[in-house]
């Protein structure tokens, strides 16, 4: 389902019966017309977070994406109760934003976490565990479990001052999970990490979701968010541009199917091309685009019968970068 709020804000819901509203699912976060303005830009537009309304279902990885300065960290700080909104409201785990009632059920990995650098991973978790009232056997078990989860158990005796960025980030994740939170906030968890460290953090994020937790992830790395988040919201200059399930957002308003084949002679290419929306036969590869799956399958049958080798048939998907650029066209 697809509906338009204001000029550019789309809320996309995959349920065709939903009339534009997602069905009744338990919400971990819900914001309504949330504003935090810090001042005005040189061109007179407000700076900060502007009129954010979104909902995050429990048990999913929700990605808040957008370029630097688009309002992601501001959103996080509001939801954590670290700053106050200019106007609007939000609920976190069913409680009013900022109330102390949900604080012990959330975890937070800030951008570039900072820890006392004379501690090793075990001492660090003991320090933070103490703040949650953990001690003794319970603390020891939790520490081992979490350091194993983030791949730091074998390196538990290394001091923070000798950590790489990836190690710091992993211990940051372990620290955020100490209180066994239902909802974990992460701000740019993989920024500045090398590809293998990024992959490890991604694996940990998947594991957190497998444990039934909700992950609210902020990142300016659109490519990275694509395989990770179930649902996303895209911000640009403080405004919500698109929100919805990743699949729906990437598939766009119009579905297309792409068919590729090899060993297609020109008369066969002309015949199948006449069935397609667009087609080309160049450098030994035949590519065609169809409006429906049925038409694409029929064309694949014709290619097969004509002696061609069908190498691919898949729904057309845009990348998150393409979605973002199309959505903010003319604004930046
Ligand atoms: N404390 C602050 N005072 C003034 N402006 C701020 C403050 N915090 C953030 N901003 C501005 O608000 C906008 C959104 O910032 P931020 O939420 O940090 O974006 P993001 O996390 O997406 O990079 C930016 O233009 C930033 O410069
Ligand atoms: Mg930020």
What gross morphology would you assign? globular
Strand content: 25-35%
Bound molecules: adenosine-5'-diphosphate, magnesium ion
Rg calculated over all Cα atoms = 24 Å
Q: Structural class from helices and strands? A: alpha/beta
SS summary, helix count: 10
Give the overall pLDDT as a whole number: 88
The CATH superfamily label of the largest domain reads P-loop containing nucleotide triphosphate hydrolases
Strand order of the largest sheet: 1-2-12-11-5-10-9-8
- Give the tally of β-strands: 16
The end-to-end span amounts to 28 Å
CATH class of the largest domain: Alpha Beta
The ordered H/E elements are: EEEEEHEEEHHHEHEHEEHEHEEHEH
The CATH architecture category of the largest domain equals 3-Layer(aba) Sandwich
Main beta sheet strand tally, sense and closure: 8 strands, mixed
Looking at CATH, which topology of the largest domain would you report? Rossmann fold
Give unreliable regions as ranges. Answer: 1-23
Task: Domain count, please report it.
Answer: 2
Helix percentage: 25-40%
């Amino acid at each position: 389902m697809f509906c338009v709020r204001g000029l550019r804000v789309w809320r996309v819901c995959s349920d065709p019966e939903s009339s534009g509203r997602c069905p009744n699912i338990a919400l971990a976060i819900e914001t309504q017309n949330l504003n935090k303005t810090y001042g005005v830009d040189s061109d007179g537009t407000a700076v900060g977070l502007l009129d954010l309304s979104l909902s995050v279902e429990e048990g999913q990885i929700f990605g808040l994406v957008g370029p630097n300065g688009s309002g992601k960290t501001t959103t996080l700080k509001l939801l954590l109760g670290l700053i106050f909104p200019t106007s609007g409201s939000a609920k976190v785990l069913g409680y009013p934003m900022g109330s102390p009632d949900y604080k012990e059920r959330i975890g937070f990995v800030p951008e570039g976490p900072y820890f006392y650098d004379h501690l090793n991973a075990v001492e660090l978790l003991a320090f933070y565990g103490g703040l949650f009232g953990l001690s003794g056997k319970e603390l020891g078990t939790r520490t081992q479990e979490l350091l194993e989860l983030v791949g730091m158990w074998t390196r538990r005796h290394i001091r923070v001052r000798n950590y790489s960025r990836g190690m710091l980030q992993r211990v940051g994740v372990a620290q955020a999970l100490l209180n066994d939170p239902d909802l974990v906030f992460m701000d740019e968890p993989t920024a500045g990490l090398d590809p293998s460290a990024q992959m490890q953090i991604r694996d940990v994020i998947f594991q957190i979701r497998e444990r039934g937790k909700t992950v609210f992830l902020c990142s300016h790395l659109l490519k990275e968010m694509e395989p990770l988040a179930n649902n996303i919201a895209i911000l640009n200059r403080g405004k919500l541009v698109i929100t919805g399930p990743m699949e729906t957002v990437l598939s766009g308003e119009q579905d297309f199917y792409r068919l590729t084949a090899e060993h297609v002679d020109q008369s066969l290419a002309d015949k199948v091309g006449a069935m397609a929306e667009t087609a080309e036969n160049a450098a030994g590869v035949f590519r065609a685009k169809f409006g429906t799956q049925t038409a694409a399958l029929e064309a694949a049958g014709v290619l097969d019968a004509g002696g061609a080798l069908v190498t691919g048939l898949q729904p057309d998907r845009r990348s998150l970068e393409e979605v973002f650029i199309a959505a903010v066209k003319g604004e930046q």
